[in-house]
């Protein structure tokens, strides 16, 4: 974690106040000292069973089935228009696990657990901010799945996971800063620190949670102007997907967005192609977004 620690330290100035709190949190995460509120036991058990290469679908399904809400989320995702184009409904968790794959099941369990933070009394004041972070994550994930599938620049499942987890650093910062009594967002300098620092924090967290290296790299480099060798593809899909979020609601922003973000050029996507993608896959994006948002 040493490299991550130095990168975060360089990215985050050591000013006092909110910025200093963020820098302290970044150092904690870089050292592997992840202090997110405890995940519900179901998420831990899902991760444990999926880490066992000998685990059968039946075992995974049994663990998921122990929590009705998580089981419903898994089934809803497996039956979404994107992941189930045949529209033949899946009602068996074993089939759902097969359709999603272990990586997507694991991500769904973790994201489900994180979403439950909204119900905790300790974060009541943060609830609107956490809900907004979650909504953006699910929308980015939905767009990323489409772009990866259409451009073939990355594995669509990995793109979905990267999109869903891309702002976990912002969520971590919001919760930990709240615990330290720091109010973020009112000060421009603190907001800049948050924007610059959250991808590295997110990458450190996902690395600590043993997500795939390709996903960790893409999330860590979501703000990078120059991508490291071998990091393109999934990182470009993620960067383009984040950039397209405002365009989903205001298509007039597409031309300026596509021109300004180099990832679109690397993916061979121009304004016309992006317009076509958003138009022809809009219904599917909405379906997947709804399934992820719960």
Overview in brief:
The chain contains 16 helices and no strands. The protein is an all-alpha fold and 294 residues long. It is globular.
Describe the protein's topology:
Elements: H1 2-11, H2 18-30, H3 41-51, H4 57-65, H5 68-78, H6 93-100, H7 102-115, H8 127-151, H9 156-165, H10 168-179, H11 188-208, H12 213-220, H13 234-249, H14 254-260, H15 262-266, H16 271-293
Walkthrough of the structure:
The chain is built from 16 helices and no strands. With 294 residues, the chain is mostly helical. Helix 1 runs antiparallel to helix 11, helix 5 crosses helix 6 (93-100) and helix 7 (102-115) runs parallel beside helix 9. The longest helix has 25 residues, at 127-151. It is globular and about 50 Å long.
Major sheet: none
Tally of DSSP β-strands? 0
Structural class: mainly alpha
> Which regions are unreliable across 5 or more consecutive residues at pLDDT < 50?
1-15
Quaternary class = single chain
User: What is the N-to-C succession of helices and strands?
Assistant: HHHHHHHHHHHHHHHH
Q: What is the tally of helical segments?
A: 16
Note the gap between the termini. Answer: 34 Å
Roughly what percent helix? 55-70%
Mean pLDDT: 79
**Anisotropy-based shape:** globular
The gyration radius over C-alpha positions equals 19 Å
Quote the beta fraction: under 5%
